[in-house]
UniProtKB/TrEMBL annotation:
Residues 143-201 form the COMM domain. The lineage of its organism: Eukaryota, Metazoa, Chordata, Craniata, Vertebrata. GO terms for biological process: negative regulation of DNA-templated transcription; tumor necrosis factor-mediated signaling pathway. GO terms for molecular function: NF-kappaB binding. It comes from the Eukaryota. This is COMM domain-containing protein.
């Protein structure tokens, strides 16, 4: 079961995925018996090369342009098809889906079993590399910038003559990327904390 079946709103949020894959089904035949690279496998290779080397945007666009010229496909519609296809592996990567789940998602979105199986095989080969890239990107986003720590001993007070408990205080400063809803939620929580602290002063 992939994320398409679990998250039905995926189809509502990304209708171009279904439309794009249907156009792909019509325009790019696949034949395992052909000795020459077929259109679909060639396009899949271009996509995975971009996914595993995301900084090479210019090369990716050049390869798409060459692919469109060789196969007599308009570049504009091809880019839309590619955007549609990339939604699935990006979502699969976030949810750590298996190749079989990716295959099921593509079939659910209207791709033929033959093409879906071919893409799933490529996903199985490339997913370890994509996972490492995603982890590296996460570490860069949630990067620890600074850390401060100190030991202390609690002192007595008017209520307790002697406490003497040892404590450790740690302050961590790290860089984190938030979506807009997460940012507003965080801002709301900080305002609540500020209001609570001011009520004690």
């Amino acid at each position: 079961m992939g994320f398409v079946k679990h998250e039905r709103r995926y189809l509502r949020l990304f209708p171009l995925t279904v439309f794009g894959l249907r156009r792909l089904e019509q325009q790019l035949p696949i034949s395992h018996e052909s000795q020459k690279p077929c259109q679909f496998s060639a396009l899949t290779e271009v996509l995975f090369r971009f996914l595993t080397e995301p900084k090479e945007v210019e090369r990716f666009l050049t390869q798409l342009s060459d692919f469109a010229t060789m196969n007599k496909i308009s570049l504009g519609p091809l880019k839309n098809i590619v955007k549609s296809i990339l939604l699935v592996p990006n979502g699969a990567l976030k949810r750590n889906l298996s190749s079989e789940q990716v295959r099921a998602d593509f079939i659910a979105l209207g791709l033929s079993e033959e093409k879906a199986s071919y893409f799933a095989e490529q996903w199985k080969v490339n997913s370890p590399t994509l996972t490492r890239l995603a982890v590296g990107q996460t570490l860069m986003i949630n990067q620890l910038i600074d850390m401060e720590w100190k030991f202390g001993v609690t002192a007595g007070s008017s209520e307790l003559e002697k406490v003497g408990s040892i404590f450790l205080q740690v302050n961590l400063l790290h860089q984190r990327e938030l979506t807009l809803p997460q940012f507003y939620s965080f801002l709301h929580e900080m305002e609540r904390v500020k209001t609570s602290l001011e009520s004690f002063s």
